[in-house]
Please model this.
Amino acid sequence: MRKVSIALAGAAIAAMVAGTSALADGHLEKAIDARNAQMTLYSWNLGMLGGMAKGTVEYDAAKASAAASNLAALSAMSSQGLWPEGSDSTAMAGKTRALPEIWSTYPAVAEKGAALKEAAAKLAQVAGNGLDALKGGVGDVGKACGDCHKQFRMPK
Ligand code: HEC
Model:
């Protein structure tokens, strides 16, 4: 039961089941752009943290803390409307890598979103506490991204 309530409460991808067929032309493309923009921001912030963890970017407590807080905020954001039905990689081939399984196995994808939210919140608490603390949490966030991509994103 707990899992279900986390999935329902999880802001990530929670509202994608809302029907959208009556909406204006171009709506699906806009939703695809918007969700990929969120992903780009994930990538930007995680890239900085990953660089610090690997040693290619110098560790800076304030910057690490800010980037991890950004990830936590982004993953807690409501994604209402971002994943309308009909915006999958079969219906809109070439325009999106979102696999139809996102919709056909719902709410499995929301659980992946909730896992990221949880990992990002933990990382935000420790990222400013030194390089070792950062390293400990970054891997879990990266894993949460990868877990969802493996199951729900079309490989390139
Ligand atoms: C709940 C599932 C899920 C989680 C969690 C998730 N992603 Fe994604 N991501 C996707 C899907 C699905 C797509 C493809 C979206 C599309 O093409 O419409 C995607 C696309 C992307 C893209 C491509 C963006 C573009 O413009 O083509 C990047 C980069 C990315 N994700 C990074 C991340 C990072 C970094 C994280 C973790 C901090 C993350 N994602 C977490 C599902 C997820």
Q: What stands out?
A: Residues 12-13, 32, 35-36, 39-40, 42-43, 46, 71, 96-98, 109, 112-113, 116, 141, 144-145, 148-149, 152-153 surround heme C (CB under 6 Å). The two ends are 36 Å apart (CA to CA). The mean pLDDT is 90.
